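Hi R.,

As promised on Friday, here is the backbone we talked about, encoded as structure tokens. Could you run it through your design pipeline when you get a chance and send me back a sequence?
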């Protein structure tokens, strides 16, 4: 992976994923390592890559229950949940509580950025970090949702 793309302050950025389009985008944006294993094997691989420490600051991005269980940070760490969680409870929350792990999250504060970003998006000037892999008309939204669910697309931008 390209360590010259790591954001200031981060020595290492790991992505846990198996979908080539998503992991490629993550590497483009600065990920240094890809972990394709799942469950206990993923945790073991992360520990190997971090000299046994684990990941101090974790983003869990709309995964299922196992993703959140894997995301629990080491003692004193933090987990940020972005998007709408797929499960109502936080797996391993008792263990996280006793390890002083901070778990937080919420919906994207769209209204804080929409005035600044929307004109660029509508003019085709911005693809916000390259995450849109397609464009759809309003009547194509159901098919677009299916494509994202089936991992055929990362995000679909809906045009008016």
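Update: got your reply. Pasting your designed sequence below so it's all in one thread:
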């Amino acid at each position: 992976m390209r360590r010259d793309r790591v954001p200031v302050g981060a020595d290492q950025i790991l992505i846990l994923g198996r979908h080539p389009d998503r992991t490629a985008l993550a590497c483009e944006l600065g990920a240094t390592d890809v972990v394709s294993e799942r469950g206990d094997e993923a945790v073991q691989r992360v520990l190997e890559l971090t000299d046994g420490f684990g990941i101090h600051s974790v983003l869990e991005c709309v995964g299922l229950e196992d993703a959140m269980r894997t995301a629990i940070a080491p003692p004193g760490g933090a987990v940020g949940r972005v998007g709408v969680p797929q499960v109502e409870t936080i797996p391993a929350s008792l263990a996280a509580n006793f390890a002083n792990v901070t778990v937080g999250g919420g919906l994207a504060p769209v209204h804080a950025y929409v005035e600044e970003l929307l004109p660029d998006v509508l003019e085709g000037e911005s693809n916000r970090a390259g995450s849109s892999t397609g464009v759809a008309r309003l009547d194509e939204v159901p098919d677009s949702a299916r494509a994202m669910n089936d991992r055929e697309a990362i995000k679909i931008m809906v045009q008016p």
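One thing I noticed while checking it: Residues 110-159 form one domain.

Thanks again,
M.
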